[in-house]
Write a structure and sequence with these properties.
Blueprint lengths: L23 E4 L4 H9 L3 E4 L9 E3 L9 H11 L41 H5 L9 H13 L4 H9 L5 H7 L5 H8 L7 E2 L2 H7 L6 H9 L2 E2 L2 H11 L4 H10 L10 H5 L6 H11 L4 H17 L1 H14 L5 H9 L1 H5 L6 H19 L13 H11 L6 H14 L4 H11 L4 H12 L4 H13 L2 H5 L2 H9 L10 H14 L7 H11 L10 H6 L3 E7 L2 E7 L5 H12 L6 E2 L2 E3 L3 E4 L27 E4 L11 E4 L12 E7 L1 H6 L5 E8 L8
Parallel strand pairs: 1-2, 4-5
Antiparallel strand pairs: 1-3, 6-7, 6-14, 7-13, 8-14, 9-10, 10-12, 11-12, 11-13
Length: 679
């Protein structure tokens, strides 16, 4: 039996293109059996002597008619022979794949189900992670930054250049690429840094760099008095982009604490950003909180759609352990509770979100009755969401078991129980987790596995046989609907140091759990026609939103959105996740964030910036997109090139700002500018 640990490359190497669009596998010292098996799959086998730069490589196909890259990946795992070594220049995914029996190859995936990405996405996928670039790769990307006509290289440098080498990068970066570089850098912690002169100049320019504001806010960057004062000056500016930049930067300790007057003048979209920044900064004077609390509560009463999100954000941010703050919030309960909101699902979602927070303040029982009728599930899910420390483990466990017993098999409730269970001590949670682990729903499994990935002590405490069943359970469900659960299961296997089975489905999940660097070019005229632009009109319970679609940035995703819209999939779906000052996400037929995928959609990332009004496909990992989408409420540069970009809101951004959890899409259609939307 020949065995090997395989290193998979996701870049085409120096070898000549494979003929007839077939993929190519290269192995060290291939034996006769492996050559025969590979050739039977239509693949070319090529061995390299020791000392060759890339002794064991797997190349994805160069043609859309070639063998699926997942097929090649699977064959590489199943058929490689001893002697494979890590490439000297690991430019791509370096996966600790399992040792497998090459005499019993795993089945290949169906090539018709393999995702293929849009042309040009390969350059942008390099910025998908923050993994440090190797020196040779860094030099190559630096050269590209000076020659490419797009920002992909500069964004990659911001994400992946070593922190201790940023000065060298800045010294060779073209000035027109500075903003893209800062947008990449905004997703990373820098530690204590002195603000470079080039950045200081950019801070004084208009429009302000929201990416630089995030960098200043998230890091202990030393600022001079003039630079620091500009942050609070932006809050008083009537321009929303300026306010967003100012709000993101005030987390920096060198920025003066804004006055109550400045904070109350902020747009309701930017206000949650400022409040979260102050909370993360800490040491905000109690009198400031005490003045903000009644002022925002009054605004909620008069305009709940615009200010309810700000109020909930304020409740999360204030120091609730302070008795005067707690008393001030609880005293305003009648004002913020008795508001008029339509439809009833929005009101139920708001009242339950409010009840959960109020109950945490005084250990009350409001959540039990926060919603009734068809929305009663929100009360039960809210009880599970409320069950967090410092609540005693015994009381948490009692409430979670009661909720699960009363859930009537509603997966939305069970998912919330699964998210809460991992906050219990492993011994206390064991029976509850064992019950959840037997679920046959991909959403429940995904929620449980994701929680156990963050709290692996629960996995280690499970009996070995039960843990094996849980980790394999997603792979017994349909692949498309269980992709998220499979990714979490595979990541948990790696965290626990357990071997991975040599199955095609698990190999695919392992590849997806890493990153989508293996972009296979696609230029399909049928797909491009289906992905033609137009205006996506969403008639919601908050108003109408019109989105100008981009056909060139993510044609596969856009074609799926178009066909789903034509099939009526979006009608009466809800916005199940709204984060004030960040995103409004909807389009899931399940209504819980774990649905919306009927086939594997490739992750086509591009240079469309994550600015206010941008519309993207929601993901749970590479190649997990579907009908779910989100509208960006404020510029969030740390997420550039991590989600497929499909368009931008052209009218109705004020409606998007007012969206709340529970709002519905009443109707959806894609029309030309001259066409009305059919009822």
């Amino acid at each position: 039996m020949s065995q090997a640990e395989v290193v998979v490359s996701t870049q085409h190497g120096h070898s000549r293109p494979a003929e007839r669009g077939m993929g190519r596998i290269e192995i060290v010292q291939p034996n006769r059996d492996s050559q025969t098996a590979l050739r039977s799959q239509g693949l070319e086998v090529s061995g390299h002597p020791e000392g060759h730069g890339f002794p064991c490589m797997t190349h994805p196909p160069r043609s859309t008619r070639g063998v699926a890259r997942e097929t090649i990946l699977t064959l590489a795992v199943a058929l490689a022979v001893a002697g494979c070594k890590t490439p000297r220049q690991p430019r791509t995914t370096d996966l600790p794949l399992p040792i497998v029996d090459v005499d019993h190859p795993a089945p290949a995936l169906d090539a018709s189900n393999a995702p293929a990405r849009a042309l040009g996405t390969d350059r942008w996928t390099r910025a998908y992670t923050n993994d440090a670039l190797a020196p040779d790769a860094l030099r190559a990307v630096l050269e590209e930054a000076a020659t490419l006509s797009d920002d992909s290289a500069a964004l990659t440098l911001g994400r992946r250049a070593r922190i201790d080498g940023l000065d060298a990068v800045l010294g060779s970066l073209p000035p027109q690429r500075l903003e893209a570089f800062l947008r990449g850098l905004a997703s990373r912690p820098l530690g204590t840094q002195v603000l470079p002169p080039l950045w200081r100049t950019r801070w004084s320019q208009d429009p302000p760099s929201i990416a630089l504001a995030m960098i200043l806010g998230k890091n202990d960057v030393t600022l001079d008095v003039e630079t620091a004062s500009q942050a609070t000056a932006m809050l008083l500016d009537g321009n929303l982009d300026h306010q967003i930049a100012g709000a993101r930067s005030i987390q920096n300790q060198n920025v003066p604490t804004p006055s109550v007057t400045a904070l109350l003048a902020i747009h309701p979209v930017a206000f949650p950003l400022a409040i979260r920044a102050l909370a993360q900064r800490g040491a905000t004077p109690i009198p400031l909180w005490l003045q903000l609390i009644p002022a925002i509560a009054t605004r909620v009463q008069s305009n709940p759609r615009s200010w309810s999100g700000a109020w909930l954000s304020l409740m999360d941010a204030v120091p609730s352990t302070d008795p005067t703050v707690r008393q001030a919030v609880l005293g305003l309960e009648p004002i913020v509770t008795q508001v008029e909101l339509q439809p009833i699902g929005v009101l139920a979602a708001y009242r339950c979100a409010l009840a959960i927070r109020l109950d945490r303040y005084d250990q009350g029982q409001r959540t039990e009755a926060c919603a009734t009728g068809t929305n009663a599930w929100r009360s039960l899910a809210g009880i599970a969401e409320r069950a967090r420390p410092p609540m005693s483990p015994g009381l948490m466990a009692q409430q979670l078991r009661s909720v699960l017993l009363r859930s009537n098999a509603d997966v939305r409730i069970a998912e919330e129980v699964a998210r809460a269970a991992v906050y219990l001590p492993p011994a206390t949670a064991s029976s509850l987790i064992a019950q959840l682990a037997e679920a046959r729903d991909p959403g429940i499994l995904a929620a449980l596995l994701e929680g156990m990935l963050e709290h692996p002590a629960h996995a280690r405490a499970m009996p070995s046989a039960a843990l094996d069943r849980l980790l394999q359970s997603p792979f017994t469900l349909p692949e498309v609907t269980s992709l998220e659960a499979r990714i979490h299961a595979t990541a948990l296997l790696r965290t626990l140091g357990r071997p991975l089975a040599a199955s095609a489905s698990q190999v695919r999940a392992l590849q997806l759990a890493a990153r989508p660097d293996a972009a296979t070019p696609l230029q399909d005229s049928v797909v491009m026609q289906r992905a033609a632009g137009g205006t996506w009109v969403l008639e919601t319970t908050a108003g109408t939103i019109r989105i100008a679609l981009r056909a060139d940035t993510a044609p596969e995703a856009l074609a799926f959105i178009r066909s789903s819209t034509e099939d009526g999939v979006y009608r009466h779906t809800t916005f199940h996740r709204v984060v004030p000052g960040f995103v409004a996400q909807g389009g899931d037929p399940r209504g819980d964030g774990y649905g919306g995928t009927s086939r594997i959609i490739p992750t086509e990332v591009s240079g469309g910036r994550f600015e206010r009004g941008a519309v993207r496909i929601a993901l749970a990992g590479p190649d997990t997109g579907g009908t779910q989408f989100f509208i960006t409420l404020t510029d969030s540069p740390h997420l550039d090139a991590r989600y497929p970009y499909i368009g931008r809101v052209v009218t109705g951004m004020n409606v998007a700002d007012r969206l709340m959890t529970g709002d519905e899409i009443v109707n959806a259609g894609i029309v030309s500018e001259s066409e009305p939307l059919e009822p």
